[in-house]
Structures are given as C-alpha cells and as structure tokens.
Amino acid sequence: MPELPEVETVRRALERTIKGRSIESVAVFHPRMIQGDLEHFRNLVEGRRIERLSRRGKYLLFILGEVAMLSHLRMEGKYYLKPAGTPPEKHEHVVFTFTDGWALHYHDVRKFGTFEAVPMHSLEDVPALKKLGPEPAELDLRDDVTEIFRGERPIKAILLDQTRLAGIGNIYADEILHCARIHPERPGRTLGVRLRRRVIDCAQRILAAAVQAGGSSVRSYRNTLGEDGRFERSLRVHTHEGKPCPDCQSTIRKAQISGRGTYYCPTCQRRKKG
Hints:
Elements: H1 4-18, E1 23-28, H2 38-45, E2 52-56, E3 59-64, E4 67-72, E5 78-83, E6 92-98, E7 102-107, E8 114-119, H3 127-130, H4 155-160, H5 170-180, H6 193-212, E9 253-257, E10 260-264
Antiparallel strand pairs: 1-6, 2-3, 3-4, 4-8, 5-7, 6-7, 9-10
Helix pairs in contact: 1-6, 5-6
C-alpha cells in the first residue's frame, strides 16, 4: 500500500497542483531516502521546472526537463502542498521549496520511501524500472500472456510479482482473484487460456474502477489532497474475514499466502489441484 490506483491518484493530484512550478531548493532530513549521492541529487533537481507527472507501476516520475525524479511511496508515503517556510512536521523528511512561495512536503512515518534523480536519456536503464513487467492496462485480452503465469508459484504470488505484472499489490490481488473465481493458492501454470484472460480482464476493470474512485483508504492511506479513497467501499473480500461473500453468502476466509494476508471466498474460489 499504496498500489497502482493510489499512486495514479497521487499523480493526478500532483499534476493539478504542482505542474509548472520550479524547484528552488530541496531539504532532506533523512538522507537514506535518496538513492545515490545526496549532493548529486540536489544538483540534478534544484533549479528545474516540473513539466509533467508520469507513472510507471508504483513509481511516480517527476519530469523536470532533461531530468526525471523517481519517487516510490512504499508503505505510507504522502505529499502535501504547503506555504514555503512552513516548518516540517515530525514525519516530513523531504521538502521541495518552489520559487512561487509554496513547498511540497514528503511525509512518511516508516521512512521506507525512496527518491532518485537521473538524466532522461538514461531513464530506461534504471534497474527499478527496467525489471518491471507490463501493467494490466497495457495488455490486450488477445495477447499471449502465458509467460506471466508460468511456474508452480501460487497465482496470488504471481500477481504480487512486479516483474510479471506491474502495479498490483495485496488489496487488488485479492479483489482480482475473487472477480476471476480463482483460489489464491492455485499454481499459475494450471491456468488455461480462458482463465488467464479472465484474470487480466478482472485486473483491468478493477484497477480502472479503483483509479476512478481515488484508490482505497485501507489503514492510513490518503491522497495528496488529504482525501480518503472511495474504492474501499467497493472491496468485496479484502479485510472482510468472517463476513458473507457478496455473491454466495459463504463466509470469507483469511490465509497467509507467500507471507501476505489473503482474503478469499471458499465457495466462489474453490481450491483446484493441478
């Protein structure tokens, strides 16, 4: 958390609020968040104008002319726009001060978020981006996606593997598998063409609906404007252990799969061996 819909919601909010502003200075209070040399990072970023905001998987990309700044929010990263000179709060570890009297504060309780600045011409060579698989929206349902689902690993683990499909995290993996009527422990290799396409179709529809709703406010997530995501109201299985399945009324269960809490319906998502 946040996952693709939440990061896309943040991207859209930042696009509306900081696009066109120029970065006068960068204050970093927790240097370990910066990938590489801190002074090099500052030299690449300071004095540049934010031309647009982009995204790849769960990474935010601040396009600063000939430089791109990558930001990964990890578990709880958030951005807040405040008047320049506002003292940073306890968990605000990076502050970008703009030339127009405003500043962007990065808030992260767990300090897991990361920043990296690279020349645009080398963006495609950044290891973190280079290894990402396609996003569900980039796939056509007629595509051969056999490679994505190969192997003995549970389908839940495959959906969480960013090198297979980019952007899906724990919340949406549970929702996608319930939509597709597939048990989360089922090995990926056992899915035939019809089921593979069903998973991609469900992923596309659920992620699109979540983006439209501004993401899901599970635990502490809020978007850049401090608003709760509304898709939490549409979750059908995730965090609903002990509640009735909205489709068949069976009791939703929780299991640990690949180290992640996993919610599923034992009736709609029957276990099949293969």
